[in-house]
Structure formats: C-alpha cells, structure tokens
Amino acid sequence: MTAPLTLTPAAARRVSAIAARQARPAVLRLAVEGGGCSGFQYRFELADGPDADDMVSEMDGVRLVVDPVSLDLVSGSTVDYVESLGGAAFKVANPQAAAGCGCGSSFGI
Asked: Which of 7, 45, 105, 109 is deepest in the core (most CB within 10 A)?
C-alpha cells in the first residue's frame, strides 16, 4: 500500500538536522488548522512520537505523522523543504487543494 503522504529526502534531511540540534526524535507532525487566507493552514512541529491513531510515513529514518482529521485534508500530498531567495520552508504539494495563496501555507478545498 502506498503511504497517503510522502516526505521528500530534502525535507527528511531538514527534519533530521533540526531534531539533532534540539536533541529530539526525528518526527515531524503535520496538522491542518482552520484559518489562513484560503480557509485552512498547515502547521508543522517536532513531535516526540506518533499518537496511537496517527498515520506514519517514513523517509531516511525520519517519520512524518498526521492525525486522522488532518489526513482527510492532506491525503496524497508531498511534503518538501524548499530554499529560495524568499526564505526556506516546508511546503505541501496537496492534490486536494482547490485554491491556494501566495504565501504557500494556506489552502482551500
């Protein structure tokens, strides 16, 4: 079975580096919250581990965890880490998003 979420190698390397600096496990939690300029926004944070009902995807020893409610809104997405002149950030390529915004951190369904 294909994982409903994909973490790119670039994102895995960044999570691993951040976790090592903070002496934390290499576990990135992706959650979706109401708000942002398009209705929903992505929230990323380091987690100590997955919760019992989380979906877990793994790349290069780094785990991406998502709660069931958020998973409904991001299933099929790819999480990447992108560095550009405008800064560096985790980006979500979400095939379910019908609308987005210039900041890239919020979306609409």
From this structure: 7
CATH architecture under which domain 5-108 falls: Sandwich (2.60)
52 Cβ contact partners less than 8 Å away, ≥ 6 residues apart: none
User: Considering the entire predicted model, what is its pTM?
Assistant: 0.84
Domain residue spans of the chain: 5-108
Write the pLDDT tens digit of every residue in 64-78. Answer: 999 999 999 899 999
CA distances to 17, 27, 48, 92 from 22, in Å: 9, 12, 12, 24
The three-class DSSP label of residue 71 is helix
Residues 6+ apart with CB under 8 A from 63: 25, 26, 27, 28, 50, 56, 57
